[in-house]
Automatic annotation (TrEMBL), chains A, B:
CDD domains: ThiL (cd02194)
Species whose genome carries this gene: Nocardioides cavernaquae
Domain PurM-like N-terminal residues, every copy: 39-149
Binding residues annotated for Mg(2+) 3, in chain numbering: D41, D86, D220
Any GO BP annotation: thiamine biosynthetic process
InterPro entries membership: PurM-like_C_sf (IPR036676), PurM-like_N (IPR016188), PurM-like_N_sf (IPR036921), ThiL-like (IPR006283)
Keyword set, alphabetical order: ATP-binding, Kinase, Magnesium, Metal-binding, Nucleotide-binding, Thiamine biosynthesis, Transferase
Binding annotation for Mg(2+) 1: T56, D57, D134
Name recorded for this polypeptide: Thiamine-monophosphate kinase
Enzyme class, first EC level, given as a word: transferase
Stated family: Belongs to the thiamine-monophosphate kinase family.
Pathway(s) served: Cofactor biosynthesis; thiamine diphosphate biosynthesis; thiamine diphosphate from thiamine phosphate: step 1/1
Enzyme Commission number(s): 2.7.4.16
Length: 323, 323
């Protein structure tokens, strides 16, 4: 029996596994590179350029999102975005995605379908197809996404920054953290920040452009700017110095800072979930349009690789860690 | 602080995210095709033949395994096996795997490391590298695996069976179900069946061999023989008739059947988790060595595509469904 013949408040337990999978799969359009799509033991994809770029991320309800704070469609968009962004951060473009859904039996089917719609729409932004997945039952709602893509030039790693490089950022940063802070206090405005938390807007074209422009290292800022800059510093064996004067604090973040009695710069330096790109370039003139120079790369001294802010250690919250 | 400096009963919460990831990653050797391994935003893999075969599966504690029934190393081996087997069922060979782990904070680090050892060992059987993953915290333990591979001939789909084909099986079937039945009654023997439940032994070489031999359709039996044969029947638009006389019931399954008062054939027809391959071939002489002919493909009649057993509808339990 097709899912559409069930009442609108039907749960996954009412509908059953295979009708659910059929209904989900029907939402996923397949690109020309998909030789075998969902429904067999595996999908088969045509690959150009002789390589594939692959990344996996998990999202857990209650930890990465709350169903009462974020509509299903936005959870879907975010689940896709954080994975598509990982390919962006290599200087590549995503082409194919798989999604594993561990779902509670009492979850409304409508939630799963709305999730899939948001997920598919976000993938469509970069032309990626949802080529396969798995659905199973779980007390905790867990979303597992794997994304495949390719690069037209060499992938840009975290390890390529050298002293003398400039550090640049592309995409909004701190907005999602501002929105989360607002929601955490029980407010729903400034709406633009709440929306930014609900739905990331990664600069998907910026990764390949930066790679072509000669970016020496790149990462997507998912955990926090200082935290993720720290991964580049560590892997490159350098110091990354961020200049607070380089960040223009947008008005809504200033407003939230005032309302909550917090320094809005903390959202920018410590916040995650916006998925801008942070990259290093040999010369300032290599930095593509749309990027802002926010710091510089220095040789690691006695304190080893690390991130400094205006030349000093940063004492604020640096980002999110699990466990 | 490295994981090895913590006490042997340390939990994930004691150790923290990044030391755990380092300790896990150190267990995964990388093949020559891995251009960029774990630790960056994404892995980069060299791909031959211009295509990639990809599949995703989830395992949830309490649903797919119990920690008190199956040692961590065997859970790891099983998590890998059920995914590697999906590539096998396309006639391909797995080359790369990602693993997402949603883990409770009070999980012993030892469990996670033993899991990873079993996972890596199973991947090594086919020469696949564990190229990336994600670790996060969750109340429910969920394992998400994605596997990538390739085929040297055209992939074998579920949809290619035609009337007149013979149906053949390769690998043990019903053993895991027998082991599960034993464990469910609180017994630990016959040991060979309990071991079969704890650790699958898929015939990884058989998929590519069958593809080269001209298999017209293929599937791996993960949910149950009748259930999975049903997917081939449905996708091919045919009837698959299984002949019970073709199955040799191994002695331990006969013993469990006697002890539990059950027909041991039910384990063979309804049991999952063994991951043998079921395939169809145009002629009996195409069937490779090591396979057993267990039935035939008939044109779908008025009742449509379905599975019959000895020419009649099968009334026993046909396999596992979620929700």
């Amino acid at each position: 029996m097709p899912v559409s013949s069930f009442p609108s408040d039907a749960t996954l337990a009412d509908v059953g596994e295979f009708p659910l999978i059929s209904a989900l799969t029907a939402l996923f359009e397949q690109g020309e590179h998909v030789l075998v799509g969902p429904g067999d033991d595996a999908a088969v994809l045509r690959i150009r350029n002789g390589h594939v770029v692959v990344s996996t991320d998990l999202m857990v309800e209650g930890r990465h999102f709350r169903r009462d704070w974020v509509p299903a469609e936005d959870v879907g968009a975010r689940a896709a975005a954080q994975n598509l962004s990982d390919i962006n951060a290599m200087g590549g473009t995503a082409s194919s995605v798989t999604v594993g859904l561990a779902l509670p039996a009492d979850l409304p089917v409508k939630w799963a379908l709305d999730f899939a719609r948001g997920f598919a729409a976000e993938c469509a932004k970069v032309g990626a197809s949802v080529v396969g997945g798995d659905v199973t039952r779980s007390e905790t709602l867990v979303i597992a996404v794997t994304v495949l893509g390719g690069c037209t030039v060499s992938p840009v790693l975290r390890s390529g920054a050298t002293a003398g490089d400039v550090v640049a950022l592309c995409g909004r940063q701190g907005w999602a953290a501002g929105g989360l802070a607002v929601l955490g206090r029980g407010f729903r405005s400034p709406r633009v920040l709440v929306e930014a938390y609900r739905r990331a807007d990664p600069p998907y074209d910026a990764g390949p452009v930066a790679a072509k422009a000669g970016a020496t290292s790149m990462i997507d800022v998912s955990d926090g700017l200082v935290a993720d800059a720290g991964h580049v510093a560590e892997d490159s064996g350098v110091v990354i110095d961020l200049r607070t004067g380089a960040f223009e604090i947008p008005e809504p973040l200033q407003a939230v800072g005032s309302a909550l009695g917090a320094d809005p710069l903390q959202f920018v330096l410590g916040g995650g979930d916006d998925h801008p790109l942070l990259a290093t370039f040999t010369r300032a003139k290599d930095v593509p349009a749309g990027w802002t120079v926010v710091g510089s790369v220095l040789a690691a001294g006695d304190d080893g690789p690390r991130v400094t802010v205006d030349g000093a250690a940063y004492e604020g919250p640096v980002g999110w860690t699990h466990f």
